[in-house]
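Hi everyone, sorry if this is the wrong subforum. Our group has a chain we'd like a structural model of before ordering constructs, and none of us has done structure prediction before. Sequence below.
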Amino acid sequence: MKEDKKVVSFEKKHPKNNDSIQEVEYCSFCGRPNTQVPKLVKGPGVNICSECVLIAVQYLILQDGALSAEAQKILDLLWSTNKK
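Answer:
Right subforum, don't worry. Here is the predicted structure as tokens:
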């Protein structure tokens, strides 16, 4: 089984070729390190863990009340992909 990286980077810098050693990164929202969360997305100067992403998505859906048709298509695609 392929092991996923715990930190996914969206920075424009090229990552160092040192994949075996992963630095500890922290979520900019909850402050937890990547060693305590399922996944961490690293952006330019900011990081967010998968759990904070879920909280944000739940808030935005509840706040707006409904998803756009395009967002619903993406969500449906993600759910159908994860069920396989």
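For your construct planning: The chain has one domain: 7-82. The two ends are 15 Å apart (CA to CA).
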